Amino acid sequence: MPYYPPEKESKAFFKNTTQEEKIVQEYTGIDFINIYELGVFDYWRYLHDAVIWNHSLNEDDKYLENAYNYAQDKPDRSGLKDFLTSRVVK
Questions:
Q1: Which of 2, 40, 50, 68 has its CA 20 to 30 Å from the CA of residue 57?
Q2: Structural domain that includes position 33
């Protein structure tokens, strides 16, 4: 599932223990009882797709872009070189 750490700490006093099930339920229309009967791979696939779908509805939402950048483990050397050479004082 696309993820990146939140920019600010949550102030929630109570933890929602069925948040992921609710996301899958809204995306698929499957009721909660049948969600618990899904295979683990089907459940995680629906959750993954639901998160992507929900964040792709809003063009101003940077969550998917931030999650993609957070998941990168190799530096963009050419982009970094271009960035740094554009900042060099001549």
A1: 40
A2: 19-87
Report the distance separating Cα 18 and Cα 31, nearest Å. Answer: 13
Largest Cα separation within the chain, whole Å, is 66
Q: Could you tell me the sign of the dihedral formed by the alpha carbons of 5, 6, 10, 16, in that order?
A: negative
**Structure token pair of residue 1:** 């599932």
Token pair belonging to 21: 């099930």
Mean pLDDT per 10-residue segment, the chain (90 residues): 76 84 95 94 96 87 86 87 79
**What is the number of domains present in the chain?**
1
Backbone angles phi, psi at 20, to 5 degrees: -65, -40
Residue 8 domain-assigned? no
Going by C-beta distance under 8 Å and a sequence separation of 6 or more, which residues neighbour residue 53?
27
pTM of the model: 0.68
Phi, psi of 29 (to 5 degrees): 85, 5
CA distance 24 to 48: 9
